[in-house]
Amino acid sequence: MRPFQKTIPLEEARAIIDAAIRPIDRVERLSLQQANGRVLARDVTSDADVPPFSRAAMDGYAVRAEDTAGASRTEPRRLQCIEKVFTGQLPLQTVGQGQCTEIATGAPMPAGADAVVMVEDTSSDEAVTIRVFAPVTPRQNIGWQGADIRKGQLVLLSGTPLNASRIGALAALGFTDVEVFAKPRVAVLSTGNEIVEPGQPLAPGQVYDINRFTVSAVVADNGGTPVAYRTAVDTLDDLSRAVDECLEQDVLVFSGGSSVGERDLILDVIAAKGEVLFHGVAVKPGKPTAFGRIAGKLVFGMPGYPTSCLSNAYILLAPALRRMARLPEQIIRSLTLPLAARIVSAPGRHQFFTVRIEHAVAVPAFKASGDITSMSRADGYIEIPADVDVVEEGTLVDVKLF
C-alpha cells in the first residue's frame, strides 16, 4: 500500500484545474437543426433587413391614417376598398385619399398607406365601402422593414450559446448552417480486473461497469462528446496501452486505480508520460481523486467507487468541460429545507451529502461511496464544510438539486 502523502482542499483542486483548462478552438459547420446548445464560433452580421418589407401586423385594412381622424361608432369614416392582399402576394394598387386595402397579417403594405385599422374596428355592409369606427396614427399596426434587424447590424457575437430564439434569428437571415466551436472529445476509461461489461456473466469477485455510463452521461450533459474505451486491466502494459489510445481525444477521464493500493498503477503511468498535478482531495465522497496532464491534455482520475466517481464528476469534471466547451456556468437550483435526521460528517473533509426530498424535508440518502443508490435515490445534495462535524436534525439546509 502507498498511503496518501497529503490531500488538498477542494478550492485548491478547483484552482489547479481552472489554471490548466484551455477552451477548444476547433470549429465545425452544422445545420441549424443540429446547432441548438452549441456555441457560435463567428460573429454574425446581417446582410439584409428583417423583415425585408413593411408588413401588416394584424388583419384589417391598410389606410392613410389621416383619413381615419375623428372616427367613432357614432361617426364612422367611410373608405373605398380597392384591393385584397394576402401573405405571399404583392399589392398592385396605391392607396389614395378615401381609399383602403383589405390586408392579412404579414402581407406587404401597399404604397400610400401608413397604418392598419384592425378588422374588429370596421364593418363592410356594402361591397366596396368600409366603415371605420376607430382612428389610427401613422405607423400603427405595421411591422416596418428592418424593424427587427437592420442591414449591417451585429446580430450575434462569437462565443454566444445558441438556443431556440438565436437559431430563429439565424433562420430569419436566411442561414441554413452555422459555424460553431467543436465539443471537447472525452475518453472515458474504466480500469480494474474486477470490472465486467453489463450483460456478461459475473464471475466471483467481479462487478459490472457503472462508471463508464455515469461519467459518459455527465460529459454529454456538459458540452462534451464521450468516447468510451474498453476496460483496462491492472497491468502496466495494458494501462499504458489504454492511456496512449485515449490520448487521441481532448480529455481523458479514468475511474479506478486512483487510490493507494498496490495495484493502483495508472497514476504511475500518468506520471511517466506527463505530470500528476494533484492526488487526493479533502472531500467526501471522492478523496482518491487525481488530476494531471499528458502532452497538454487533461487527465482526470476518478475513484472506482460509483458514488465517489459520480460525485466528483459533477463537482470537478462538469465545470471544467463547460469551460472547454465555452458554455456558461451551470445554474444550480436549490431549496432550503429542514434536515430530517442528524448527520455526522467526516472531520477535516468537505462533504457532499446526498438527500432526497420527502414531504418538504431533506432526508439523508447517502449510504456508502460504493453504493450507486446513494445517488440514484437522491434528489440533490447538501454541502457540509470541512470545519463542521455535525448537522443536527431540523437544521435548515441548502439542497442543491440534481
Count every helix, treating DSSP H or I runs of 4 or more residues as helices: 7
Low-pLDDT residue spans: none
Strand portion: 25-35%
Instruction: Give the radius of gyration.
Output: 32 Å
Silhouette: elongated
Task: Please provide the count of β strands.
Answer: 28
The major sheet is characterized as: 6 strands, mixed
Structural class: alpha+beta
The whole-number mean of residue pLDDT values reads: 95
Strand arrangement, major sheet:
7-4-6-5-9-8
N- and C-termini, Cα separation: 36 Å
Can you give the helix content as a percent range? 10-25%
Question: In a few lines, what is going on in this structure?
Answer:
The chain has helices spanning 10-20, 164-172, 211-221, 236-246, 266-273, 306-324, 373-376, and strands at 27-31, 44-45, 55-56, 60-63, 77-85, 99-103, 115-118, 122-123, 129-132, 142-143, 154-156, 177-181, 185-190, 195-196, 207-208, 225-228, 251-255, 275-279, 283-284, 290-294, 297-302, 334-338, 343-344, 350-358, 361-364, 380-384, 390-391, 396-401.
Chart the SSEs and their pairings:
Elements: H1 10-20, E1 27-31, E2 44-45, E3 55-56, E4 60-63, E5 77-85, E6 99-103, E7 115-118, E8 122-123, E9 129-132, E10 142-143, E11 154-156, H2 164-172, E12 177-181, E13 185-190, E14 195-196, E15 207-208, H3 211-221, E16 225-228, H4 236-246, E17 251-255, H5 266-273, E18 275-279, E19 283-284, E20 290-294, E21 297-302, H6 306-324, E22 334-338, E23 343-344, E24 350-358, E25 361-364, H7 373-376, E26 380-384, E27 390-391, E28 396-401
Parallel strand pairs: 5-6, 13-16, 13-17, 14-15, 17-21, 19-24
Antiparallel strand pairs: 1-12, 2-11, 3-10, 4-6, 4-7, 5-9, 8-9, 18-20, 20-21, 22-28, 23-27, 24-25, 24-26, 26-28
Helix pairs in contact: 3-6, 4-5
